[in-house]
Design a protein that fits this description.
Blueprint (H helix, E strand, L loop, with lengths): L1 H4 L1 H13 L4 H11 L3 H10 L3 H9 L8 H4 L7 H11 L15 H11 L1 H8 L5 H15 L2 H17 L4 H17 L16 H8 L5
Length: about 210
């Protein structure tokens, strides 16, 4: 059957996501269903073209869960402080994601993508509203070819076209800009962000080629 017999969990997740775009569990249902697909294998091959990313995949670096109180003790301009402040301001849990037992490079790739989702938001400067999420997914697709990024982009664009066709073109242009930024920036997956929480956010952006407008 389609996608190694996992078509039903994927379809169930797609239906749930369509009914409630904010349902994070449905996102993970879809991604878990796609884990053994040729799309996910393509993504793995793509990210490993970058040597630093390939080395991190081989190392399978997994940091400790971030302690927000500790991060808030860092300088105000640091990535760690800004990350903790971002999570607190939006009432986000740093360990919100569905965990994965890492038995393969694909497992690690998915886990790392989930762990660093809000760091990517912070460094790119993309908001956590619908437009910001879609821009980040375009950035992510550009950098990783992650199947889930493409699924969410398609779902988001369809939803936007159906609910607000007049603003669709503006959203489309924003998504294209996110894609191009991902192409120009250095690979985010290659970064062990948590080892350098104290580095200023502006320095991270400069090193990675990110301009926040």
């Amino acid at each position: 059957m389609l996608v190694n017999g996992k078509v039903f969990p994927i379809a169930r997740g797609m239906i749930s996501l369509w009914k409630d775009p904010g349902n994070t569990l449905s996102v993970y249902d879809i991604e878990d269903g796609l884990k053994d697909s040729w799309l996910q294998r393509m993504s793995l091959r793509y990210v490993k073209l970058d040597r630093a990313t390939a080395e991190l995949l081989e190392e399978r670096y997994i940091p400790e869960h971030p302690d927000l109180k500790t991060l808030l003790s860092l300088p105000a301009d640091s990535l760690g402080y800004q990350y903790a402040s971002h999570l607190i301001a939006h009432h986000f849990d740093p360990n919100f994601y569905r965990s994965i037992e890492v038995n393969s490079e694909v497992d690690y790739l998915l886990l790392r993508s989930r762990q660093t989702h809000d760091i990517w938001h912070l460094v790119t400067g993309y908001d956590v509203d619908v437009a910001g999420e879609l821009k980040l997914k375009a950035f992510e697709w550009s950098q990783t070819r992650r199947p889930m990024a493409l699924v969410l982009l398609v779902a988001g664009l369809l939803g936007a076209f159906c609910t607000s066709p007049r603003s669709f073109l503006h959203l489309w242009n924003q998504i294209i800009a996110g894609y191009h930024l991902g192409k120009q920036a250095k690979p985010f997956l290659a970064r062990a962000w948590e080892k350098e929480w104290e580095k200023p956010l502006t320095v991270w952006r400069q090193e990675l080629g990110i301009r926040v407008e």
